[in-house]
Amino acid sequence: MDKQKTISSEVSFSGIGLHTGEKSNITLKPIKENSGIIFKRVDLEEPIYIEAILENVISTNRGTTIGKNNVEIFTIEHLLSAVYALEVDNLLIEIDNIEPPILDGSSTIFYNEILSCGLCEQAANREYCKISEPIVYYDENSDIVLKILPSEKFSITFESDFSFKGVGKQKFTLNSISDYSKEVASSRTFCSLDEISYLKKDNLIKGGSLDNAVIFLCEKNTKADVNKIQEYIGKKLVYDESNITLNNTKLRYKDEPVRHKILDLIGDLSLLGKPILGHVYSYKSGHRSNIKFGKLIKEMNSDFKFNKKEIKQVIPHREPFLLVDEIIGGIRGSSVIAKKNVVHTDYFFKGHFPGNPIMPGVLILESMAQASCFLSFDNVKNSNEKMMLLSIVNSSKFLKKVIPGNKLILRVKLNKIRLGTASMEGVAFVDNKIVAKASFMATIVDKKNE
Known about the structure:
Elements: E1 3-7, E2 11-16, E3 23-29, E4 37-41, E5 48-51, E6 57-59, E7 65-68, E8 71-73, H1 77-85, E9 91-95, H2 108-117, E10 119-125, E11 129-130, E12 135-138, E13 145-149, E14 154-162, E15 168-174, H3 180-183, E16 190-192, H4 195-201, E17 214-216, H5 223-228, H6 230-233, H7 256-269, E18 276-283, H8 287-300, H9 308-314, E19 326-331, E20 335-341, H10 361-372, E21 386-398, E22 407-418, E23 421-430, E24 433-446
Parallel strand pairs: 4-9, 11-18, 14-18, 16-17
Antiparallel strand pairs: 1-10, 2-3, 3-9, 4-5, 6-7, 7-8, 12-13, 13-18, 14-15, 19-20, 20-22, 21-24, 22-23, 23-24
């Protein structure tokens, strides 16, 4: 078994934050085993500790921000990417402001300085997030796709498509985390010339400059476009229509943008809190989808699982109206993922379009409601004596047919519980495509008096 690691000695960094423009100093310190990665805001009257975990992500607007008790830390992904690549499991990161320094826009300075201070093996074994079956995330509002496949090591393939001059479609595979320093670490953050004004209006990139970012030109850009952003950059700008970058910034890799997307993705997935064994594939993902995908991996890779026999011990439904076959994942008290194998022998197909059988939409909704009973865990006292009874359907939408042979996956998330009523959202999938959605409420009742 691999052992957990921390750093051998302290190491510090100083500089301005990319988005806030605030100067900060950070010091990385060794910490005991099984602690994880923890940020500590030392500039406050009482220091605040914020764990670098998915549950603490509060924003993904052009970067990943974590927070707790109204205290935030912006743009953590570059530092966390380097920490993950160095296989550091436990680390205390003291910071005296709201954003780590952007340095040169990549993670190479973080990586090299941490490596130079040395790594220290600890007594505890590393606990891996080992992928045993494919997990797929698809964003229905875009063509973003993320998936992870079983593998004995961690690797990433990323495909991007940018409308920048001389860039377009790019694809790169990081075959091993040991190649990170050579293949990924030096790739810098970037944007297009057209995005500068938008980002400034959105109160972002206050610390951005040509010293820490690559600004790409688009085919339609002219000298007038460059002149418009002169005041933002604070540096003499030179326009040459033959260049693909502003001021002809030289690329460190010919495909630097897609490599930086891998750098970001590693930083975001590090928030799982465990090193991953699996091959990640991404098509055009960004921070928002990376974090959603990380949460899906955590749900699907959890030990929150129940077979049919165990399900019957939790909810009172019985055949032919027990619609859920298996609980395949979830986070206790927060979310549940269930599976229903839709088969020809299901009783409702005898009368519901028997010549062309389709699962009734109301039964998909009922399947979500049955799955929701498992959300009472950790939320309801004496949960083994209680159950969720569907009481209000706020909205529902049935988007695609569900037919015999389909595997129906139901994901139900708890929004809140108040005064004995739970508010939830459910989504049903077949082949990773959404077939139904619903927002509903359930009343918590005694099983014996349901």
